[in-house]
Amino acid sequence: MLKVVAWLGTLLAGVAALRWLLLVFLREWTNKPLFEALFDRLQRVHHEKFQSTVPKRIILVRHGESQGNVDPKLYSTTPDRYIELSSKGKQQALKAGQELRALVKNETVLFLVSPFARCRQTYQQIAKAFGNEKQIKMREDPRIREQEWGNLQDSVQSEAMEKERTLVGKFFFRFPQGESGADVYDRVTTFLESLFRLFDRFNCEDNIVIVTHGLLMRLFLMRYFYWSVEKFESLENFRNCELVVLERLESRKSDKLGTYNLVTPMRYVADSHDKAAA
Predict the structure, then answer these.
(1) What's the pLDDT tens digit per position in 202-255?
(2) pLDDT digits over 154-196, tens only?
(3) CA distances from 209 to 124, 126, 205, 241 (A)
(4) Which of 25, 29, 6, 7 minimizes the C-alpha distance to 17?
(5) Residue-wise burial string across 62-99, b where 16 or more C-beta atoms lie within 10 A, e elsewhere
(6) How many whole angstroms separate alpha carbon 212 and alpha carbon 227?
C-alpha cells in the first residue's frame, strides 16, 4: 500500500510539473516577439548545421577517351558498357587526377561512378593521384550510366538515326530499343534526390566527384539549374576528362542553402560554328 501511495504521489507531482510547463509555454507563445526570436534562433542553428553537411564542391568528370571514341564501329560488335579506355584516355585520366588533387588538396572526396568500363577505368587512374586511401571513397551508381543507344548499333542504321536525331533534337529523340535524352533526365532527377539525402549525413565528404558521360553531365546541369531544353540543345559536349566544378554558395539565407554556383564556363555549339566560319 505504501508503494502505491508513493507512486501516486510521484505521478501527481509529474502532472503538476507538466501543467506548469504548459502554462509557461502558453504565456511565451502569446509573446510574439519572443516567440519569433526563439524561432529565428532555432532556424539559424538548423541552417548552420545543414550548411556544414553540404559538400564544398560537386565536380563532374567525363571519362577519358574510349576505344569507341577512336573507332565508332566498335559499338556494333561490343556492348557499350564493356568498351574500355584507349591508351590516350588512360593518360587523360591520370592528368585529371592530378588536377583534381590540386583542387581539393587534403579534403575528403566521395566518387560516384558510372558502372561502364570506361568510367571505372577513369576512376582507377584518377585515384592514383590520392596517396591517402582514407581521403577517398567510391560508389557505383547505374543511374549515371551512358544514354542507352540500343543494342549493338549497326553502323548504317546509326548514321541514319543520327540524322533523325539532329532533326528531332537530342533531348526528345528516342533510339529504338534505347532511351531519349528526356529518359536520362528522369533518372538524373532521382539521382539528384538521392544525392541531397546524402548531404543530410553529418559526416558527408567535402567533395562529391561524379565520373560519368558527356550527355549525362549536360543533363545533370540542366536539371540542377532548371535550364530549358533549348539551352541544353545549344551546349557543346564536354571534352574527355574535362572537370566541371560547382562550388557551394556560402549563404545563410534559407533560399540559398545547399545551392551551388557553376564555376566552369560552358561552350556553345553556335560559338564553334562562328569560329569555323571565321
Answers:
(1) 678 999 999 999 999 999 999 999 999 999 999 999 999 999 999 998 765 545
(2) 766 777 888 899 889 999 999 888 999 999 999 999 999 999 8
(3) 13, 11, 10, 12
(4) 25
(5) bbbbbbbbeeeebbeeeebbebbbbeebbebbbebbeb
(6) 20
Active site residues: 63, 146
Distance CA(219)–CA(247), nearest Å, equals: 18
Give CA–CA dist 64/123, Å, rounded: 10
Query: Residue with C-alpha cell 538515326?
Result: 161
102 or 40, greater pLDDT:
102
Reading phi first (left if > 0) and then psi (alpha if -120 to 50, else beta), residue 267 is in beta
Residue 42: its H or E element = helix 32-53
How far apart, in whole angstroms, are the C-alpha atoms of residue 198 and residue 153?
A: 37
Do residues 127 and 136 lie in contact, with contact meaning Cβ atoms separated by under 8 Å?
Answer: yes
Task: Show the cell assigned to 269.
Answer: 555549339
Over residues 115-134, the mean pLDDT reads 95
> What percentage of the chain carries pLDDT values higher than 90?
59
Q: Which residues pair with 243 in a beta bridge?
A: 61
CA distance linking residue 245 with residue 61, whole number of Å: 9
